[in-house]
Write a structure and sequence with these properties.
88 residues, mainly alpha, globular
Length: 88
């Protein structure tokens, strides 16, 4: 599974600056980054992988951030090609 690599890709995008998190439960980009970093540390646990999957669902927090922040095409590429098998 490439969950760790997906988190790394997401962190690289999110660390570029502030993103619109208004459609999520997160209050800031830093809060999203913090959660992803914590999930990365525990990604070998089923609970962490399930949490990551929830964040990445259609209309999930990551997709909402991507769409409202202007990087939806990058997001779609990540989940539909690079990491598709991990979400099957």
């Amino acid at each position: 599974m490439a969950f760790r690599e997906l988190i790394d890709d997401l962190l690289a995008i999110l660390r570029t600056g502030e993103h619109d998190v208004s459609w999520t439960r997160f209050r800031s980009t830093a809060e999203v980054v913090s959660e992803l970093e914590q999930l990365r540390e525990r990604i070998d646990e089923d609970e962490a992988r399930e949490r990551l999957k929830l964040l990445c669902l259609p209309t999930g927090a990551i997709e909402e951030i991507a769409v409202s922040s202007g990087w939806a095409p990058t997001w779609v590429h990540l989940v539909n090609s690079k990491y598709r098998a991990d979400f099957a």
